[in-house]
Design goal:
The protein is of the alpha+beta class. Among the domains are: 100 residues, 2-Layer Sandwich (Beta-Lactamase), CATH 3.30.450.20; 76 residues. The chain is 42% helix and 21% strand. The chain is built from twelve helices and 16 strands. It has a six-stranded antiparallel sheet with strand order 1-7-8-9-5-6. Strands 11-13-14-16-15 form a five-stranded mixed sheet. A three-stranded antiparallel sheet has the order 2-4-3, covered by helices on one side. Helix 8 packs across helix 12. The two termini are 29 Å apart.
Length: 489
Amino acid sequence: MEGPDRPVTTPASTPTPPLEVVLESARALAGSDPPALRLQSLSEYLCRVLPATAVQIRAGGRRTDRASAGAADATSPAQSVAIPRADGRSAVLEVVDSPRPRAELRGLLEAIAAVIAAALPLLDTTSASEADVQSRLHSMTIDSLPVGLYVVDREYRVVVWNRKRETGTQGLRRGDVIGRRVLDVLRRQPPELLEAEFARVFSTGEVRVEEQEVQVGIDVRTYRTTRLPMYLDGAKVSHVITIGEDVTETRAIQRAMHQSEKLAAVGQLAAGVMHEINNPLATIGGCAAAISARLGADITPAVHEYLGIIESEVGRCTEIIEVLLDFSRVGRGGPVLADTDLNAVLDRTLDLLKHHQRFRRLQVVRDYTPNLPAVLGSAERLVQAAMAILLNAADATSGRGKIQLRTRVHGRQVEVEVEDDGPGISAEVLPKIFDPFFTTKGPGRGTGLGLAICHGIVADHHGRLEVRSDPGIRTVFRMTLPVAGEEVA
């Protein structure tokens, strides 16, 4: 994927790129050892590079349980993909305890499984030369990669263009690209910038990695572009390999994990101190009430005012403590989960809010997908999450704008979007929106915990909560939850 719209900082620790993993897998299968040793070599390589506790290539179908393989215990999470075979027999590639995000790992395993499937007939053929087997495997590997790949020579002509590049967002056919200058093919960024990127790799031999955020329809996708030098004529770089990967889901998972860690830390703090604070507050409130009762009619206006302030502030502190205690319970168990209709959850939330002062002048538009698949969840907790988002939208529009509620099915996930036409959220504030105690509201108007608790509730349901904003136009909160019965990590 070419052309940065907005550069994004690349994480310091970068796993082995999928291209390298799949190519090395092909090399392991194309060696001169007996077939069994080649498969063993591939398993050992994948154990190291993924990394994983165990990797198995075995006959039979996928297991229906979460059983382990090799040295892993029975509770270890395993991910498996079927190896497609033309002879009708079933085979499985199974990986146990890899730290890679499950969405990214699955795409990688499917590419490796395709290479294994292509290699199995060759492993049984003794007449094919090692060079022929390796050449055929490399060709199949490049086309089966789950990432876009192309290669240019020193004249910037495209010499390789894999199948993913043909089916990607740019959708350029191989026959229309091979032999042309890449500067005439890719238009996402100015040709002089693209040429400078290639020239740097050709001149220095450096591996270049960058990430870009690109607007695709109404969504913003994150792509990682890697440029690798290739040497065919000795010490001089002869070609540059470019790999484009869609890492949107991976980055979203990483952000969610980071946010969950922050929420857990604050939750532990809240659970540890809130009960201790509650006791002296109760004492203060009780003493204020006792003083008021003892003075009775003799109380002076000034003392009456002060006692009223004490009681009011004790009540406010008690409410904050209740919110903190709710926050500390996020991720610590809760009510039994059941199949839940998100359309009904939203309707119930709106019914609870219809008399709320901030909602009286709001225009609410419902755009629901009928017969929405159920999610496994707690209706009460999901109402709490939806209420936090809707109250935030009401505050953003000052109670006089329009809020649109949308529900959609996307694959095996259900999405809920809440869009408001308020002033939006600035780029500086957006990354902090789910941080505990962060608020842009004035003093006394919020604790900064509503959206943080909401984020924790969605995470407890194995979902994601994301926000995007166009300042001056709109803000959209998107809650994504797996359909009931889907396997979750």
